[in-house]
Every structure is written in C-alpha cells, then in structure tokens.
Amino acid sequence: MDFPITRIKGGVGAAKGFTTSAIACGIKNPAVERLDLALIRSEHPCVSAGTFTTNRVKAAPVKMTQAHVRRGNLQAIVANSGNANACTGIQGITDARAMADGVARPLGLKRTEVGVCSTGVIGLPMPMMRIDPKFGELVDGLGRGRGGEVARAIMTSDTRPKELAISFDLGDTRVRLGGCVKGAGMICPSMATMLCFITTDVALSKDDLNRAVLEAVEESFNRITIDGDTSTNDTVLVLANGASGIRRLRRNGPRCRQFRKALKWLMLELAKAVVRDGERVTKFVHVKVRGARTYLDAKKVAEAVCKSALVKASWNGGDPNWGRVLHAVGYSRAAIREELIDILYDGVPACAGGLQAETPMDRLRDIAAKPEFEIEVHLNQGSAEYDMYSSDFSPEYIDFNRSEYAYWKQARKDGLV
C-alpha cells in the first residue's frame, strides 16, 4: 500500500453508521447452539454493489439479491449459514423473500433494500419454522461492536472467523473500510465460493462503486483456488453510506483512486485468509507467472498450475516436483516454449530452460516443506504477469467431503424431505 492505513477492530461493523447483529436459530441442527443468522444494517441510505457466482445453477438468494442490487441500493443484509437455499425451486424464492421481509418490516425498509445470502448444504429446503420467529430478536440485537459475531455466524466448514477493518485518510477526512468473509471449500476463481460483506463510510456514486468492486474482486477473490469447484451461492456485497461526512468522490480523482487501492488491498487480504483456512489444507502457495506474451496466457498458466490435482498433492507431501508444475504449464493452452521456461521455489531455481536446475534437491525439499512458499513460473516470452493463491490437497480433505448424509437425516426429522 503506497499510503498509510491503520488496522482497527470491528470487522464489517467498523465503518460509521453501521450496526450488526447475530443470533442462533439451529438452522442446520436445532440441538447445536451456534450463531447462524446475521444482520448488517446501515443507519443511512447506501450505495451498493455486488458480484455473484458465475455458476449457471444459482441459489434463490443469489437470484433475488442480484435483482435488488440491479434495481436500486441495499441498506441491509441478512445472511445465514447451515443451509444454502440452492436447488430448492419456487419454495426457495419464497423463503428468500420471507427472509428479506422478516428484517425489512421492523427496520422500516422495502424488501428490495435488503440483500439475502445463504451458505450451507445444497438441495434442502430452508427450515423457516426455526428462522421466522427469530427476526424480531435479530433486529433488536443490532448494535455497534458486534461485527465479529457476523463473521462467526456465516461460517460453515471454516475453522475460524475471517474479518478485517482499516482506517485511512482521504484528504482531511478519516474514513473506514471493514469486512468479513466465509469460505473454506468449493473455492475456485470466477468467483471463489464464499460470502463477503464489506461496509464503508465513504460516499461514492453507484457507477464508481461498481467499478471499484469489479476491479477489486478480479484481483482478489478471482485469484484464489482450493479445490477447483465454483458454488451456487458466491456473493460479494459492498455498502457505502457516506457517514464519514466526506463528499462524494470525484470519478477518477486522486481520492477515488486511493479508495479503490484500499478496497483491493482489503479484499486481497480476506481472499488470502480464505485459502489459509481451506478445508484440511496444510500449505498456502503463491503462484507467480512472469514473462508471458499476453495477460490471458499468464492467467491460463497460473490457473492450470493452481488447479492441478497432481501439483497440489505434491505440495501436500512437501515434494518440490517441478515436473508436475511444468506439465500443467504445457496443457494450459497458453503460448509457451518449453526450452525457455524457468521454475523457482522461493526464488531458488528448480527448473532452468525446461530442464533440471543445479540446485540440490534437499534445498528445494526444505522450501516445499514449509507451510507457505512461492512458486515462480517464468515463460520468458514477454512482459505479462499473473498472480494466484492456492493450497494443497490432503487425504483429510477427501475424508471431510465424503458425505453430507447427516444433514439429510435432520431435514427428514423436520419434515422438509
């Protein structure tokens, strides 16, 4: 970051004029007491923007919230974990509307001013009989300093809440930017499988916020992968309420550019946190592609390496198998020349000109054994580059994802299937 920022507490509730709340409804399992329903509310009218899953199978809340953001601006977000409300037909849309109405009425908002997000098991109807009675408590609980509860309430297979907030100066005014994210499995670019909510007390036009969000998502959540799967529920929502008192930023002015940089930085830090908390992962690997002929070639190479099951398995074993990296480069469909390719682990040559480098294998093994390291792929054909962040595949990941049968048993008890 080329200007000073300060990390502050509060997560998604850190910006001025925002309050948050979270409660337990027993959405996945009524016998387990855990936060699973969250609310973010702005006390002032907002400008909002969002990006959503590219999966053609979209969850009911995604379809509805997309329409709300397209038509106008959100002033609140209600989100749940434990059930994705995906592949649930007309009933799913009805339930998503009921969630929006459930908070809109007591807040004095229109349904279209509420975004709805869900995450959890796909294919099961929402247990609305446990959610409907809780909206009053959820709204009554709104307050400052509860952003961390939102981060916990949207967790599914995450092992820890992921949140971040910063403050920085735009001219003479101190502004705030905060957010939280959930995601650990079904993570793949365009978009990664996660929910992310970001709030700011800066004032922007809708066009400027849309542009800032699209740019930031492309350089953050579209640069991570854990298992190569893209879900039905991916959503990033950003609310800007102008409560800092700063006047609307001038398009492409220095303060607007500064805000975009801060938003990109925040999103990238949250995206990295998703990879580090991936389902049963043991390695965080930064893959840097350099010297490609075109941006698209660099992207193809990075995605091929980061998604390769063989490469990811070698990372899990601490094996600096540069041959697997090179083979992934070869099938990436990028324009390459094998004899020009160099591959480095934390700056140490493993492959030079498409052949084994002179570096002792023990030195490379020491690097690959670390929990975090970099792999640089130099194509030596141009100046285009691309960065991605990935993880290993572990035997525990397979075991963890073998069955969701227990969730269906609970749904049967609830009379939903």
From TrEMBL:
State one Pfam family annotation: ArgJ
> EC number(s) on record?
2.3.1.35, 2.3.1.1
Q: Where in the cell is it found?
A: Cytoplasm
Q: In which pathway does it act?
A: Amino-acid biosynthesis; L-arginine biosynthesis; N(2)-acetyl-L-ornithine from L-glutamate: step 1/4; Amino-acid biosynthesis; L-arginine biosynthesis; L-ornithine and N-acetyl-L-glutamate from L-glutamate and N(2)-acetyl-L-ornithine (cyclic): step 1/1
Top-level taxon in the UniProt lineage: Bacteria
Please name the InterPro entries in this protein's record.
Arg_biosynth_ArgJ, ArgJ-like_dom_sf, ArgJ_beta_C
Record: active site? 193 (nucleophile)
Catalyses which reaction?
N(2)-acetyl-L-ornithine + L-glutamate = N-acetyl-L-glutamate + L-ornithine; L-glutamate + acetyl-CoA = N-acetyl-L-glutamate + CoA + H(+)
- Chain sites annotated for binding substrate: 156, 182, 193, 279, 401
Q: Where is this site: Involved in the stabilization of negative charge on the oxyanion by the formation of the oxyanion hole?
A: 119-120
Site feature: Cleavage: 192-193
Q: Which UniProt keywords apply?
A: Acyltransferase, Amino-acid biosynthesis, Arginine biosynthesis, Autocatalytic cleavage, Cytoplasm, Multifunctional enzyme, Transferase
Q: Which PANTHER family match?
A: ARGININE BIOSYNTHESIS BIFUNCTIONAL PROTEIN ARGJ (PTHR23100), ARGININE BIOSYNTHESIS BIFUNCTIONAL PROTEIN ARGJ, MITOCHONDRIAL (PTHR23100:SF0)
- Protein purpose: Catalyzes two activities which are involved in the cyclic version of arginine biosynthesis: the synthesis of N-acetylglutamate from glutamate and acetyl-CoA as the acetyl donor, and of ornithine by transacetylation between N(2)-acetylornithine and glutamate.
Subunit field text: Heterotetramer of two alpha and two beta chains.
Q: Which NCBIfam families match?
A: ArgJ, PRK05388.1
Sequence similarity: Belongs to the ArgJ family.
The protein's name in its UniProt record: Arginine biosynthesis bifunctional protein ArgJ
Organism of this sequence: Haloferula sargassicola
UniProt gene name: argJ
